[in-house]
Amino acid sequence: MAFFLEVLIGGLMAGMLYSLIALGFVLIYKASGVFNFAQGAMVLFAALAMARFSEWIPLWFGFQNKVLGNVLGFAAAMLVMVALAWLVERLVLSKLVNQEGITLLMATLGITYFLDGFGQTIFGSSIYKIDVGMPKDPTFLFESVFQGGVLINQEDMVAAGIAAALVALLTLFFQKTSTGRALRAVADDHQAANSIGIPLNRIWVIVWSVAGFAALVAGVIWGSKLGVQFSLSQIALKALPVVILGGLTSVPGAIIGGLIIGVGEKLSEVYIGPMLGGGIEIWFAYVLALVFLLVRPQGLFGEKIIDRV
Q1: Crossing angle for the helix pair 251-271 and 2-32, to the nearest 10 degrees
Q2: Could you tell me how far CA 189 lies from the centroid of its own chain?
Q3: Buried b (16+ CB within 10 A) or exposed e, 6-16
Q4: What CA–CA distance (Å, rounded) separates 268 from 279?
Q5: What is the pTM of this model?
Q6: Cβ atoms 245, 48 nearer than 8 A
Q7: How much is the pLDDT for 59?
Q8: Which of 33, 113, 174, 208 is deepest in the core (most CB within 10 A)?
């Protein structure tokens, strides 16, 4: 039972990180109807900015305080993501209002390759380190209940707590604020929202900035765990099955979908993997997403769209 709990808790923690990345997809889709294929590249780009600015700023200003360097590096990286949001709205979205979904999808693919190349140009292509002081040592829980206790990685616990707090904050933002309601109105109908005085350009800059913030936090967490490298954008694509499972328009769906996939891939790898030769964790999420596309394409919490003719 102790080993099962270790696997289960590890899956829940990984699921929260998947949910954090999936939120970027959901937020942009809810506000603009655009499936943002560039979210993985945004995670990588934000993590590169954080890693490099936290290294450069202490050199530029001549101090060695690591905490101050990380804070200023995070702030500088966030400014970069806001500038990126403004450029995306100004150069891409404002030109493609009311275009077909495939046109917008291809635009985000272009943004993906631009960010991958531009990131290498300005930040370099080496593997960089992000050290924000998250604990690396494992710890034992429930020692009085199970012999030897349950082994938990402290870094995963802190990362899952940060992800959960941000998910809760963004959920409240979407549901309780006037800006969040404006975002939902824009997602329903661009022209109708514009006709009642909701400025599309400002709303799109806001939502891409919020998605950039989510990408930055996810990039910092994954970069702290694995180092900032260009495979990071591939890890971020694990969130694609999460949004398919939870529903493209549902913030709670992104959370539940992430937890299901995180737990499912860990349990299947540990308990079924040895019988099949391993590797289940690589494809489990995508097979589960394929099953949902066949039986419930809108996901667990997505809105079923009915066109009347």
Answers
A1: 150
A2: 25
A3: bebbbbbbbbb
A4: 10
A5: 0.86
A6: no
A7: 92
A8: 208
Nearest CA-CA partner of 32 in 258, 210, 239, 255: 210
Neighbours of 117 (CB within 10 A): 10
- Please check the confidence at residue 309 and state whether its pLDDT lies above 60: no
Are 21 and 218 within 8 A, CB to CB?
yes
How is residue 32 written in tokens? 């603009």
- Would you call 114 exposed, middle or buried from its count of C-beta atoms within 10 A (0-12, 13-18, 19+)? middle
* Mean pLDDT along residues 23-40: 80
pLDDT in tens, 106-148: 888 899 889 988 988 898 888 888 888 888 777 877 777 777 6
> CA 25 → CA 139, 170, 214, 256, 270, distances in Å?
34, 13, 10, 15, 29
According to DSSP, the residues that pair with 125 across neighbouring strands are none
- Summarised one tens digit per residue, pLDDT across range 77-107 is 999 999 998 998 888 877 776 677 778 888 8
